[in-house]
Automatic annotation (TrEMBL):
rRNA-binding recorded as keyword: no
Cell membrane found in the keyword field: no
Any one Gene Ontology molecular-function term assigned to this protein's record: DNA binding
Keywords of this entry: DNA-binding
Protein name: DNA-binding protein
Top-level taxon: Bacteria
Length: 70
């Protein structure tokens, strides 16, 4: 869902997280990955503008962060 919100393909996420496209595919299939790999994927999403929303009764989710104006 986060990748789609950013308009990123598998290769875009892989490049931004410095992992292989195969790793992204494994992640999206729900396979177990090293915690450092999951952290790299999350950091790439957050750098791209995604906010992760904790579970609040409706389940966890994502949204695009508000852009700040200066």
């Amino acid at each position: 869902m986060a990748r789609a919100a950013l308009g990123w393909g598998t290769r875009d996420l892989a490049r931004n997280a410095n992992v292989s496209p195969d790793t992204v595919a494994r992640f999206e299939r729900g396979e177990n990955l090293k915690s450092t790999t999951v952290a790299a994927l999350r950091a790439a999403f957050e750098a791209g503008g995604v906010e992760f929303i904790p579970e609040n009764g409706g389940g966890p989710g994502v949204r695009l962060a508000k852009k700040t104006t200066r």
